[in-house]
Amino acid sequence: MKLHKSILIAGVGLFLGAGMISQKVHAASDDGVINERWGKPTFVAGAGLNQQQLNETMNKLNINQENVKMEQATGADLVKYLGYGSGDDSVMLSSVVVNREDQGKGINVEILTPENITQITADQYKNPLVTAGITDATVKVASVVKVTGESALTGVYKAFESNGETVDPQRAQLAQTELDTTSDVAQSVVDNANEQQQNQDLSDSEKEQADEAYKAQLNQALVDIKKDLAELKEKQGELATKEDIETIVNDALEKNNLSQYVTKDDINKLIALAQQYQTTDGVLDKESIAQLDKISSDFKGTVNKLSDQLGKFGDSLKGTLEDNQGFFANLWQQIKDFFSGLTN
Questions:
Q1: Does the reported pTM lie above 0.85?
Q2: How far apart are CA 210 and CA 217, in angstroms?
Q3: Three-state SS for 40?
Q4: What are the DSSP calls for 322-340, one per residue?
Q5: Rounded to an integer, what distance in angstroms lies between the CA atom of residue 328 and that of residue 141?
């Protein structure tokens, strides 16, 4: 999906890099401990930055040329990895530093300049990163100009390949499709919630918190969809049908208290995305599911934190995570209800 391309290209400066280096190189981590396994973090800077902007960006990321491996993302990289774009270097404006972590650490994303990343939250990058095959990395994002942030994934692939890793183009493009799709659906959810005046008694800052909570719920819904698809394939030995996928998507939305805020078009977009999950190699494998378990706790933590801060209104945001365990729980309940009906 190539949504809002003019916006995407303008916002493409967010480049996530992950240094996967085979040789042992010394580098200092945030706590001052030398990470000998992974070496220096990788810094991918937008080719559109002038020297002053580059210096300012590095300052915001608290790095210098000596303590990172430096790379540059160009307009040609956008075309190479995502399959579209003008190839114009001038739109490449934001930057990311990523440090590879030990196995099992999971993915952590921190936006250091939230005032300049106008649409995508830190949590919204995590699902696409897993879809693209990224594992166990700490990502720090900064931009010296305002960008929407939808095309943040280009730099990940540039950083991986600069460190000798091969990027699967199918997974890379699906990750971008996922970010585009979920960004669009998240905005629809927020707009519909506002139209229904669910947050009419909140202050502007509280409304921003509520919007972030809705986005976190959608992030968790994606995790639930992926895990249910993987479980169905493992149990049945075959891909889910379109009807199965529709049930899985609707269950995930209901479980995360989003059903009342999504349109039929939103649901169709998520169904189309889910169909691509199960037909793209690696997206639903055990390593990816393990990474999803890690980020899932982040999403739930975000919702719980924001809900607690919003008091009574926050109680309506938490969904029914404890009461509804998703597709297979619902399927089992339907089977029990069916046989119960036969005996009554």
A1: no
A2: 11
A3: coil
A4: TT---HHHHHHHHHHHHHH
A5: 37
